[in-house]
Design a protein that fits this description.
This protein is of the alpha+beta class and 158 residues long. Helices cover 23% and strands 32% of the residues. A 7-stranded mixed sheet has the order 1-2-3-4-5-9-6, sandwiched between helices. The longest helix has 13 residues.
Length: 158
């Protein structure tokens, strides 16, 4: 288990990953979509220093080939949002994989909640996959008052 500045200790989770489904669903609200990447990625969870209580944040990253590491899921428990925990998880992944990957990318909805967050974390727009959410999810997904249609990819160098 790795520590870090600020609240919480970040550790890797290699089994029983579905134990954190409640958190994973905050970032990706359809379980069969989570199933597509959960077992092929690295998963990290932030807990309080005691290790007791619910996880504060979760992050799943995958090797997408050609030196690209992708954040597939990043979620912070609702009552803890806005305290820098999401940014800390991004920086943890960037630090851990720097030297092994050249690019950290994330795909997200065209949402007023997530795009400003990733831009503040140093990501820049890369490309768009049209109709990703309408094609792959069995229900409409709304975020920040916006119906998500396209997947917007952002990247930063590691």
């Amino acid at each position: 288990v790795m520590g870090g500045e600020g609240q919480g200790v970040i550790g890797e989770v290699s089994e029983n990953r579905k134990e954190y489904l409640d958190l994973l669903l905050l970032a990706d609200e359809q379980e069969n979509m989570i199933d597509r990447y959960l077992d092929r990625g690295w998963m990290y969870v932030m807990k309080d220093r005691s290790g007791d209580g619910p996880a504060a944040a979760v992050c799943v990253v995958t090797d997408e080939g050609k030196g690209v590491l992708e954040i597939k899921n990043l979620a912070v428990r609702r009552e803890l949002q806005g305290r820098g925990l999401g940014r800390r998880m991004v920086e943890f992944a960037a630090d851990r994989f720097r030297g092994r990957f050249q690019i950290l990318q994330v795909g997200t909805g065209d949402s007023p909640l997530t795009l400003p967050f990733y831009k503040a974390c140093g990501f820049a727009p890369s490309h768009v996959v049209k109709n990703f959410f309408t094609d792959h999810y069995d229900h409409p997904i709304w975020e920040g008052g916006v119906l998500l249609r396209d997947m917007v990819y952002l990247r930063r160098e590691l």
